[in-house]
Amino acid sequence: MFSIDNLKTKPILTYVYWTAKIGMGFTFIISGIRKCPGIKFTILTNDNPVGSYFNAMYETGFYWNFIGYFQIIIGVLVFFNRFVVLSSILMIPVTINIFIISVALHMKGTPVITSAMVLGNLYLLL
User: Fold this and answer.
1) 85 compared with 42, residue with greater pLDDT
2) DSSP symbol at 109
3) Where does the sequence pass through the membrane (predicted)?
4) Cα–Cα distance, 73 to 78 (Å, whole number)
């Protein structure tokens, strides 16, 4: 009989699970830490759409810091088995938003990485 729990016992899927968990956790923690002290995400100028977007986000001040603290909390929670599902649910809107931004701003190569983040996030929910 087919079961998600039976699939999770397969070595390759166990590897995928831990890779997603550790990768998502550290990605969120590191990017969150960069936002908290008010460090800009990119050094691009406003002439570039990506630079313009991230500079506008940075200029919001409190909101930029809020996103950073939220990412740190989610990134830490994913490392605790008790909170994997909760942190994955909280990560979904963030990862989907990051994916949409990378597509909308035509960031070369980034949609591939961000789509992997969304898939890894969804896998953690299984």
Assistant:
1) 85
2) T
3) 12-33, 62-80, 86-107
4) 9
How far apart, in whole angstroms, are the C-alpha atoms of residue 22 and residue 63? 26
Q: What is the CA radius of gyration of the chain?
A: 16
pTM: 0.86
48: left (phi over 0), alpha (psi -120 to 50) or beta: beta
Using an 8 Å Cβ cutoff, are 109 and 89 in contact?
A: no
- Tell the burial category of 95 from Cβ atoms under 10 Å away from its Cβ (0-12, 13-18, 19+): buried
Q: HSE-up of 41 (CA within 13 Å, CB side)?
A: 19
Residue 89's pLDDT band, with cuts at 50, 70 and 90, is very high
For residue 82, what is the DSSP state?
Answer: G
